[in-house]
Design brief:
heterodimer; A: mainly alpha; 56% helix; B: alpha+beta; OB fold (Dihydrolipoamide Acetyltransferase, E2P); Chloramphenicol Acetyltransferase; seven-stranded mixed beta sheet; five-stranded mixed beta sheet; 27% strand
Chain lengths: 82, 383
């Protein structure tokens, strides 16, 4: 997967879980949960869906590394096997 | 014969739109089966039937707005025969109470592939706001009132005083609560470090699909504490407490757009931790998708509100009548904490109980909070 594909997959999952969010409102360096009002259940759903798409499982101890869209892209980019 | 009527889905509801029949005349129905979907200010609710039998007659067409108590269908129970006739008087009575159909709603006569599936309430609102249902349906599929409302342009300032149906419902229930229920409040600080540490270790061994969130652990702890102190679980009815052994925990769930619903986690007392997590996840998803059942929005025996995600430290809630108590759980924060002679930093949560003083005293409330604290210090007991 390319960086662009990973970013697109993350955005797709966010929009699927929270359909009222506009793509333009996902600011790359803002905290995803706080800026988009995504609770812990929805956040876990996003990570579970991304696990299915990319095969990468984010342990809870790494949550601080996937707090923004930018960080999440980097995190998955490093670990995904094409 | 029994008449299936539009149920009251909360004291505040006056009418709802019958959206879809899940059964047809002649079908057998089981107790607890979902037989229809109705649209209310709380979203689309699935309606269950409470007896076994056969659907004799459907009295109301889909997409009709019906007031509470309107007969919707006739169910023939098993001990009745086909030949049995319905008393004429009842029929006349039914005719008088036939629901009104809003004349401004266009109910399409023929079913074509181009027809937009939309509820009458959605159609009316769309017409009012000048929103094109076709383009809306292209993105949402079936169009519900909430879709139209969210597609509406920002309202001009002078219309701000107009209050949504859900807001009005909350207003009525809360005003009633504060005028009728003498509340008392108790608060305790709970050291959450042991429970969160235990949960982290357990989750590290699990796959992402089976992880347990702290919210589920907290609800499980509250439910177990209620089993130990049942006096807080039930209703105030006819000037006396009516204690329930079944715990239908009403969970405050924020809707993404606006408002709050507290649907019940039915029979939470029978669930272990995994089941609590699974049911809670399902309940939250269905609440946000507008797919709740009538029992879930009418049979709460207690309310749990966890404003943790919003970042406040304590919640002094208003009891939802006729319930007897409300549990408020605050955000978990790092605080200086004394253990023995040492001062350390711990993750701490404020748990607050709002109790109905007619039913219980502070002593009962204190027992409950003590049990809750005790369980969270021994999280393995919550499995």
């Amino acid at each position: 997967m390319t960086q662009e594909q990973i970013k697109a997959a993350i955005i797709e999952q966010i929009l699927f879980i929270a359909p009222d969010i506009e793509e333009a409102n996902i600011i790359p360096d803002k905290n995803i949960q706080r800026s988009l009002e995504i609770d812990s259940f929805d956040f876990l759903k996003i990570l579970t869906a991304l696990n299915e798409v990319t095969g990468v499982e984010v342990p809870e101890s790494d949550y601080s590394k996937v707090d923004t869209l930018e960080h999440m892209c980097e995190y998955f980019m490093k670990r995904v096997k094409d | 014969m029994s008449t299936f009527v539009m149920p009251s889905l909360g004291a505040d509801m006056e009418s709802a739109v019958l959206m879809e029949w899940k059964i047809k005349e002649g079908d057998r129905v089981e107790k607890g089966q979902v037989i229809a979907e109705v649209e209310t200010s709380k979203g689309v609710i699935e309606i269950e039937v409470f007896e076994e039998g056969t659907v004799d007659k459907i009295l109301v067409k889909e997409e009709t707005e019906c007031t509470v108590g309107t007969p919707l269908a006739i169910i023939r129970t098993d001990n009745e025969t086909l030949e049995e006739e319905m008393p004429t008087q009842t029929l006349q009575h039914l005719d008088e109470k036939r629901p009104h159909t809003d004349a401004t709603i266009d109910i399409p006569v023929s079913e074509s592939s181009e027809r937009v599936k939309a509820s009458p309430a959605a159609r009316r609102k769309a017409k009012e706001l000048g929103i094109d249902l076709f383009s809306l349906a292209a993105t949402t599929g079936e169009v519900h009132l909430s879709h139209v409302e969210s597609a509406a342009p920002a309202e001009p300032v002078e219309q701000k005083t107009q209050v949504s149906g859900m807001r009005q419902a909350i207003a009525r229930a809360m005003s009633r609560s504060n005028s009728e229920i003498p509340h008392y409040y108790l608060t305790t600080s709970i050291n959450m470090t042991p429970a969160l540490h235990w949960l982290e270790e357990m989750n590290a061994k699990r796959s992402i699909k089976d992880r347990i969130l702290p919210a589920a652990l907290l609800i499980r702890a509250v439910v177990l504490s209620l089993k130990a102190v049942p006096e807080l679980n039930g209703f105030w009815e006819n000037d006396a407490p009516n204690i329930k052994t079944q715990i239908n925990a009403g969970i405050a769930i924020a809707l993404r757009k606006e408002g709050l619903i507290t649907p019940a986690l039915l029979n939470a007392e029978s669930m272990n931790l995994d089941e609590t997590m699974h049911s809670l996840d399902d309940l939250i998803s269905r609440t946000r998708a507008g797919k709740l059942r009538n029992t879930e929005i009418t049979q709460q025996t207690i309310t749990i509100t966890n404003l943790g995600d919003l970042g406040v430290e304590s919640v002094y809630g208003v009891i939802y009548p006729p319930q007897l108590a409300l549990i408020g759980l605050g955000r978990i924060i790092n605080v200086p904490w004394a253990e023995g002679d040492a001062l350390c930093v711990r993750k701490v949560m404020q748990a607050t109980l709002a109790g109905d003083h007619r039913a219980t005293d502070g002593r009962t409330g204190a027992k409950f909070l003590e049990k809750l604290n005790d369980l969270l210090q021994h999280p393995e007991e919550l499995l």
